[in-house]
Structure prediction request, 130 residues.
Amino acid sequence: MATWTFSLMITNTTDRELEVFHSQLDWGIWNTEGIEDRGPLNIPPNTTIQALGIKASTGPNGYECSCSWRDKVPAGEKSYGTISLSLNVPQKSKNRAECLADYQLHIDAWDELPEKGHNFVRSIIVSKVR
Prediction:
């Protein structure tokens, strides 16, 4: 049986690195950049990378995770905000995924998951609202 997968590409258009400050794997295996057990990555400024990858642990068993990034704040400055992803692609019920930003960060190009299916690639663009 084929492995179920999800990949999130993030384009960081800000002038700050976005660093992972929370990641939780409820079901599945981290598989960022095709490397098993490699968790979510920090995103350098003005860069596009596969920031998160996950796959089902064995066959069609689904996957579930969450991850949040925040800007790396220089001393004496305020944070731009956070980006949060929650993802649940179960074997026998509807897919659920949410990607949100707060404060001065904004997400473009997020595309909701369909109710069914199990292999997805999503891309977002993170920018700072002026």
User: Anything to note?
Assistant: The chain has no helices and nine strands. The longest strand covers residues 18-27. The mean pLDDT is 94. Residues 24 and 66 are 5 Å apart (CA to CA).
